Amino acid sequence: MAPPPPAPDLSSYPKTTPPSVLLVIIDIHPLSWSLLASPPPLPSVPDQPAIDKAHASPMTLPDFVTILMVFLNAHLASRWGNEVVVYGASAGRAKLLYPPPSNAVAGPSKPRPNTYLPFQLLDSRIEQGLKEMAAEEQDRLANGDVNSLNQPPAMVSALTKALCFINRINPHTSASAALVDPTAAPDPSAPSSTGPDRPETRILVINATPGENVSTSSSSLDPSQTNGEVDGNVQKASGGQMRGGYVGLMNCVFAAQKAKVPIDVLSLPPPSIDASPPIFLQQAAHLTEGIYWQWNGRGGLLQYLHALYLPPPSLRHHPFAVPPQDAVGFRAVCFCHHKTLDVGFVCSVCLSIFCEPRPVCLMCKTRFPIKSIPTLKSLASYIEPIPVPDTVPPPPIPKNSKSQNNENNKKDRNKSVVNGNSGGGRGEPIEID
Amino acid sequence: MVQPSFSHPRSDPSSSTSSSPTAALDAFLDNQHQSYFEELYKSEAVCLCVLRSLPPVPRHIILHHLWSHQPLRTTEVKSFLQLDIQTSIQDVDEIMRPALNRKILHPMMLKKNKMLWPSNDAFKKGLRNALTGLGTSNSFGVPFDRDDDAEIPSQEVLVAYGEEAFEGILKYMVSSGLGIGFSVARPQAEVLELLHISGLMIDPTDATGQNPNLNKMTITSKGFQFLLEDRQTQLWEVLMYYLTAKEANSERSAEVLSMFFSLGCMQLGQDYSASKSFPHALSALNDLAQYGFIYRPSPDSNQFFPTHLATALCSGDAAATKSQDADEKRFLILETNYKIYAYTSNELEIAILNLFVDIRIRYPNLVVGKLDRKNVKSAMEKGISANQIISYLSSHAHPQMYNSPPPLLHPTIVDQLHLWDRERNRLKMEDTVMLEFFSKELFEDTETESKANAALQLSVPNQKFLFIEPQTKAAITDFVKERQNQLRSGF
Amino acid sequence: MPLDLNYAPGAADEADDDFIDDDDLPGPSSRGKKGGASGGKGGGKGKDPGRHAWEAEYKKSWDIVQEDEKGSLESAVESLLARGRRKRALMADTPLRRSIIRHMFIILDLSDSMMDKDYRPTRFEVILGYLRTYVVEWFDQNPLGQIGIIIMRDRLSEVLVPMGGNPQEILSVLSDKRKLEPSGEPSLQNGLMMAKGGMSHLPTTSSLETLIIFSSISTADPDGPVTIHNVLQEMVDSKIRTNILSLSGEIKICKQISERTNGKFGVALDQDHLKDLMWDTIPPPATTIAPPITVGVRNALAGAGAGQRGGAVGKAPAGDLMVMGFPIQLPLGGETLCACHGLLKKGGYLCPRCGSKLCDVPTDCEVCGLMVVSSPHLARSFWFLFPVANYRVLAIEDVMDSINGNGDTCFGCDVEFPDVSTIEEGVAQVEDGVSPTGRYRCAKCRNDFCADCDLYIHDTLHTCPGCSQ
């Protein structure tokens, strides 16, 4: 980071920002929230009394939704023309919660004298939508579909829906490009000037499910369904399994990259519930230049939401700083057993990833030389995860740095109480393994 | 193709439409005292609207810090803005200036070796309550308790009503200046009075300006400029004239102003109870009805509907794009050959266009005209500047014009307008005193003397003419006489 | 030797004349000929059979788009969309095997003919503009590929950009127009030789390709024992696929080259067509070339490669498993030493096997030799492996049947579908591929989508929202 100029250039600060559309995907998987509602006690951090003082705070879905609504209201408040779209991702299904379809009955009949009407509409509609979804879940359980609860939240489905929505309001992909004069826009990097103000969009994923949810677990349930459909074709069946998981998420990430939509990720399960971060969501945030942050389980969510996720993309990086991001593991998932891999075996023809050497590629049916398998196996046996050193950078200003490896922390320790219970700063390291 | 031009719309800051629609409001607020704001910030609607009127950077810093219990520290702002830690306090102060001017933050103070801005508790509380809906001031309007089957006017009716009322005033102003035969109803006396006080219209026969005949007023150059502004600017200007003229008393003034903001946060098509929403500003609310801000089913009813004029007050450009008149506002196509196609049938817009456009053809929904020297210059004589014409043209540009590469208006036309403007300013009238000399020495001596005293306006050595400032006449003639005597005695 | 140094432009003119003679139209100019046709033959023969392409009326692009009776362009737009849809339907059965690690040289003809103004403003400007988007799009779809650029002018060829994987570098070179001023004549032979030389060290498991954008109608090749036919043979031997795009017309030698190297030859009719032809070369080619002879991808199989080579020659396996490591990217914190340059640098990647720090990926780890690849790079190509099935157009009856099954909104963007009952039956003239109900149904998850989402999901997203539940 180059040293900033001594005098801030006021004129370089934007005078206006385009209207901003915030698409929120909230994970409302019942099992995850039951975990969050009764978190295990946090490990004490004896060398940092400021953090230690803040106790583990249970977080229930209604509590969180209240906080989220205030945050969404703040987003609406920060500019006229800002909009909010909310998707709920429950076990195996995703649904649009807000805005309601136009033919739906208008919300509450009476405006409340102390609430800005758009806020009131947003809040009541989200509440209603969440209740509807919860009721549907209840029905599914009542119908004996217990298995459905074991499905991971349908993050990918929600993401695809969000991207489709963005494509509808901001069509700048091939579909519309086919209709304009091809010579008129030989340079796609040039800003298209179709209208005075194009809204900017961003996606905020609120993850509540511990583990590397999107990738792995979706596999174990699907085969029964997909195999039946695709007449037992192994190759395609495995395609069906993967589609909801890793590959789907990656496809979403690339589509978002193309549309220049940042995917912000807020991961709620604190380290005490789940030591490993949702690495694929972290990858998504990293690749789309979004903000990834994991809650430390010690309250302060309202402040964090406002501080980290409120500035629109046009103000991020310049002039506002983005929170420092942790190390990102670029691990992948193998196609055969859906394991998360550090080192894998890749078919040189179709680039499928496998966790063990095999004679024939599952995807493209390429035969691999038998002879190389023992060698590969022996190579594989060397592979064991290495401990990753603590890699969190010190924050630019040591005002409330909580890095464990920060040696000269003694001095700061006493001042680092930020907001009562808001506790650990953003610099808190996330364990990678 | 793009030639270097002195009036390129991007490079020329004066021609850019940088003035915000709430300029009148900003100027008013900037001159108010702390206590005034304390009064204002009792209303959540005001907090919300003031927050939105801040520039993006301070706005987000305020929001960033909203839920913190501690004062905002300069180091925090610096790190959030990626500024060097050595950045001077003044520079950081400058960034937060808009928030300081609105008294959202108190001036910087030093506490325990830390520079910090304590925030205004009333504002913080108001904004928090606005976001959570926990306020108690009823500032977003108390809905009217009506029967469920009561008939309420549709949004279209309200828009039409507001449009008609406000455009009626504008049309009256235009027709007074152009003598075009509009069938214009004369606005009510209070409105005319305000037009007079604000200087938008004067009675030319009334030399003192003290007791004008309200029925014989004509529009002033300020009035013409007012006509070319966009709608939101006009509304805020009118409201501010109203506020300064009618409510000089500051206590009531804050209440009326906060009512304006409350109106801006209301919902079109919803009815509200006047006495419950604004118990202290009922008369002002009545006055606003004359301008079309609110609609009342019957004159003395407690029930009122805000029209789109009111609900769009605080919504910046966003409401303009949402409401259906946004497309109607964008009707102008300007060609590089100075031809203007205006897809409108609005009498008022045509009359305004007529101020500076030579209108050639009129169809039911289309007016074709040409920007020419004669009409533009006559408009400029009325006090309209080139920049105002340009900003009018660009704010009314048809969406189709955005499809061509920027700039929106072709530089040729922008430059020509500026040239015409300068042409008008080519002659400058000044009073002067002319001295004619017969002796060369005397002429030269007087010239150097008057130059030294900054009295010289022009010298014509060939004909030995000097032109000097009138107020220096006595001193210079004294000098001339003295010098003359010296010269004579020298012979 | 069809083309040699004695070649003179006049020869081509003669050839053209010959061609006209064959058509039995000996007139000195087209004007005379036209008069003869209209006056002499009268109405007997009609116009079309005797007409040449250059005699046809100029087709204005705006005439193609037809307004419907309401004066709206909607139907025209829809038919354009439908064209894309049908094209995709054809693509659905393309082979699964595609070469994903690609190396391509773009050989750009920068002869005088590039200044021709038949494309506006000039061929040169148009090609340059297209190339810039092409490179970006190419790297988007082939993140593991590399591109180099060779230019041909003044009978010489020159490597403008060496083979590399950084689109920014290529774009910056392409943006400097002064260095690319066209002049002289091109030499196809020199260009091909240079491309071949530049790719000789690359393993044949990756796909080696050249894309020649040829504007001239001749090539001025060096005199000597080596002719362009020899070079062609070498290209065939080293399995370099050569695609040639001609801006002027069909040229025998070009066609021959691309046919023999399994490439494509295309003549651009107009700007749109030129773009289509260029963009056709972006998706990875299906591997139909004979399987490569050697194994050992880069040096991934460090130990196995040597032992393998001997035995593998006969069997010629098409591919092999590669060991790849997925690194951890470090944040931009403090500076640490990197293993590849030995310099202090911020950020970087950690090799997952040995933990040494590398500056950039993809690369081979300097310490343990593991091929370190960022997994998103691999994931870019996964949509080839898991294509989204085409959606089925829903007729009105279908919707009527299943009206209760699916909601009234698109499953992707939640836009509302038009009410079925209000759709008129008489819209039969709509082109096939366009749904009269505005609904398109995924065969697998049986959810309905709107036309916009259908296009977006298949062209960009490559993931069906319904199937991913």
TrEMBL record, chain A:
One of its GO terms (biological process) is nucleotide-excision repair. Residues 181-196 have a biased composition (Low complexity). Keywords: DNA damage, DNA repair, Metal-binding, Nucleus, Transcription, Transcription regulation, Zinc, Zinc-finger. InterPro entries: TFIIH_Tfb4/GTF2H3, vWFA_dom_sf. The keyword Transmembrane helix does not apply. GO terms for cellular component: transcription factor TFIIH core complex; transcription factor TFIIH holo complex. It is found in: Nucleus. Component of the 7-subunit TFIIH core complex composed of XPB/SSL2, XPD/RAD3, SSL1, TFB1, TFB2, TFB4 and TFB5, which is active in NER. The core complex associates with the 3-subunit CTD-kinase module TFIIK composed of CCL1, KIN28 and TFB3 to form the 10-subunit holoenzyme (holo-TFIIH) active in transcription. Component of the general transcription and DNA repair factor IIH (TFIIH) core complex, which is involved in general and transcription-coupled nucleotide excision repair (NER) of damaged DNA and, when complexed to TFIIK, in RNA transcription by RNA polymerase II. In NER, TFIIH acts by opening DNA around the lesion to allow the excision of the damaged oligonucleotide and its replacement by a new DNA fragment. In transcription, TFIIH has an essential role in transcription initiation. This is General transcription and DNA repair factor IIH subunit TFB4. It comes from Kwoniella bestiolae CBS 10118.
TrEMBL record, chain B:
This is RNA polymerase II transcription factor B subunit 2. PANTHER family: GENERAL TRANSCRIPTION FACTOR IIH SUBUNIT 4, TFIIH, POLYPEPTIDE 4. Belongs to the TFB2 family. Residues 1-21 have a biased composition (Low complexity). Residues 1-22 are annotated as: Disordered. Signal peptide: none annotated. One of its GO terms (biological process) is nucleotide-excision repair. GO terms for molecular function: ATPase activator activity; double-stranded DNA binding; translation initiation factor activity. NCBIfam families: tfb2. One of its GO terms (cellular component) is transcription factor TFIIH holo complex. Residues 415-481 form the Transcription factor Tfb2 C-terminal domain. InterPro entries: Tfb2_C, TFIIH_p52/Tfb2. Keywords: DNA damage, DNA repair, Initiation factor, Nucleus, Protein biosynthesis, Transcription, Transcription regulation. The lineage of its organism: Eukaryota, Fungi, Dikarya, Basidiomycota, Agaricomycotina. Component of the general transcription and DNA repair factor IIH (TFIIH) core complex which is involved in general and transcription-coupled nucleotide excision repair (NER) of damaged DNA. It comes from Kwoniella bestiolae CBS 10118. It is found in: Nucleus.
UniProtKB/TrEMBL annotation, chain C:
Its main location: nucleus. Transmembrane segments: none annotated. Pfam families: C1_4, Ssl1. Residues 440-463 form the C2H2-type domain. The keyword Nucleotidyltransferase does not apply. PROSITE patterns: ZINC_FINGER_C2H2_1, ZINC_FINGER_C2H2_2. The keyword Metal-binding applies. Component of the general transcription and DNA repair factor IIH (TFIIH) core complex, which is involved in general and transcription-coupled nucleotide excision repair (NER) of damaged DNA and, when complexed to TFIIK, in RNA transcription by RNA polymerase II. Belongs to the GTF2H2 family. This is General transcription and DNA repair factor IIH. It comes from Kwoniella bestiolae CBS 10118.
